Amino acid sequence: MNAPFQARAGLRDPFQAFVCDDATADMLRPVAVEHGWSPEKVNKGGLRNAVQSLSVSASPNILFVDLSESADPLNDINALAEVCEPGTIVIASGQVNDVRLYRDLVASGIHDYLLKPFTVDQLRDTFANAQTVLSGPRGEAQVDKPHIMAAVIGVRGGVGASTIATSLAWLLGEKAHRSTALLDLDIHFGTGALALDLEPGRGLTDAIENPSRIDGLFIERAMVRANERLSVLSAEAPIHQPLITDGSAFFQLQEEMRNAFESTVLDLPRHMLIQFPHMVHDAHVAVVVAELTLAATRDTIRVLAWLKSNAPQTKVIVVANGVPSGGALEINRKDFEQSIERSVDIVIPADGKLAAQAAKLGKPLAEVASGKVGAPFTALSNMVLSHATEEGAASETSAAAASGGAKSLVDNLKSMLAKPKAKAA
Question: Residue 298's closest CA among 149, 159, 425?
């Protein structure tokens, strides 16, 4: 209904009403004429008739429904939401004078609730407000800002990819002023909602179980709002419940998020690359998160090679995360870069106190960070925006360093992973 994501209000009827009594119908018709709407669009039958009618026809831009004959208004409104298209502004009326009901109805997506008996002036004010919302600037913003999709991939568990994905999504929403979706694809152990102090809901598991349900309305209802510009789709599926899907649900979710948001951040576990390689095909940017260790070096080489073969059009950003400020490094940055045959784009220093503070506050690390830790997150956000809006192939800065002398541990690792045809005469 009229929830956060304004839909295309294109070729639908501007207005429809479903009322329970003649007095309400007689009040509505002249007001409808004043707005240039057909008085024939005022129908008898109340909410039940509205659900039946809209299940076989497109919903209007503005819908008036009478709840007077409804025994369970909130449950019936949820039934209406199942057949209502995204962007429809719903105005309800009824005889129940209960502030809790009003709040629950508004929370479910209702634009306004008019308590009977209401006046003609109240009706006019409500319709005027609905038209203001309908013609608001949201649609124009999406025209000016083409959609950006970024996939954040950790080369190993525990490197902080989810922390970076959450922070990146928050920055795109809060600092770049883009409506942003965070899609956490770790179905069983995802932390996207947890990091923002939210309950994940059942939206993602419902989508996987029944991909045919995924549409604009599903996205509107399933996403959990973190703030005005950031919404999250995450899950905490039971551990005994295996992920059984052909990947069509993920593809459909990407499509609908592209239509509903200006930015999408995918928190993409590395095993998903193997199972569902199509997930990164439409991503403008792949943020590869690593740490400066031997195992992470090996897996960064493998992930970068996979991306080059399977998503050559996607711009890659390499992030070294949790880098200690002292010299206690398993592998130094120079050796890491020589091994992966490209430079590190972003280095995020380790700061245990700041990470603990962010976790306690239920806020993304980028929101509480400043100075040495905050600057790399801002740089990452700017780089994603820059790369995603660039047209053409990405020019990688590969430094093929010919280092002489004895082979180091990293050199041996690189040799093991090199392809047989790598050596040229």
Answer: 159
